[in-house]
Specification:
Radius of gyration: 39 Å
Number of helices: 1
Helix content: 10-25%
Order of helices and strands: HEEEEEEEEE
Distance between the termini: 91 Å
Largest sheet: 8 strands, antiparallel, barrel
Shape: elongated
Structural class: mainly beta
Number of domains: 1
Length: 228
């Protein structure tokens, strides 16, 4: 009996080997997949903004003579960056206006013009925001570009004058105003700018002398667009 049992057990063991090998062949080890890191979008251009302004010159004209047309309206563009919640800086280029004079009596002609441009690097401090309105103060430094042109023709004399003078001069500016945020990206800005060019030269018609130093008092209305 024991001999028959041992033979039967051996046969059963031999029969189980192929089945075990088949199960081992069909078994795949588990695959472990590491969890991918969470995707965080990168803000490109965050903190940068674009600006556009129109201005009105409230100062006395530089050449306040009869027959002169004063161009008081100007415009400007620029871009800036929010350094913090309260401090920002920008670079601007603006046309400030000027004067123009034309004369023609059918024989003699005179054409004269005076124009001013400015380029500034400015910094601003946004004081606080109350009911959406943010008052600010600022200061800037840069250059003004001034152009004087004169063309005169007097056939009866006869005489002809053609003159052009262009100059770049150091300038500084002081600003104050307030902005109102109309949306997440758009703010409307109303402000005042005092622009002084100490070394800019001009002709003083009342004394017939060349003088230095021009001052501009500008009221500006603009829009800022934040590039979030």
């Amino acid at each position: 009996m024991s001999q028959i049992f041992r033979v039967s057990a051996a046969c059963a063991a031999l029969a189980a080997v192929p089945a075990a090998q088949a199960l081992a062949a069909d078994y795949d080890p588990p695959i472990y997949v590491e969890e991918a890191p969470e995707y965080v979008p990168v803000e490109i251009g965050s903190g940068w903004y674009l600006r556009g302004d129109i201005s009105y010159s409230a100062a006395d004209p530089l050449y306040d003579l009869p027959g002169i047309a004063h161009r008081r309206f100007g415009a400007g563009v620029g871009f800036g960056y929010h350094l913090t919640d309260n401090f920002r800086t920008d670079v601007t280029l603006g046309y400030l206006g000027g004067d123009r004079f034309s004369y023609n009596d059918g024989t003699n002609t005179i054409d004269a013009s005076y124009t001013v441009w400015s380029g500034l690097v400015s910094g601003y401090y946004d004081i606080a925001t109350v009911v959406g309105i943010t008052p600010y103060v600022g200061a800037g430094v840069g250059l003004t570009y001034t152009r004087h042109e004169l063309d005169a023709n007097f056939p009866t004399v006869p005489a002809q004058i053609s003159f052009a003078d262009r100059s770049y001069d150091f300038a500084y500016a002081l600003m104050a105003g307030a902005s109102y945020k109309v949306s997440d990206n758009v703010s409307v800005d109303l402000g005042y700018q005092f622009l002084h060019t100490p070394d800019a030269k001009y002709f003083d018609a009342s004394t017939a002398a060349i003088r230095e130093g021009t001052k501009h008092h500008l009221v500006k209305l603009g829009v800022r667009y934040d590039l979030w």
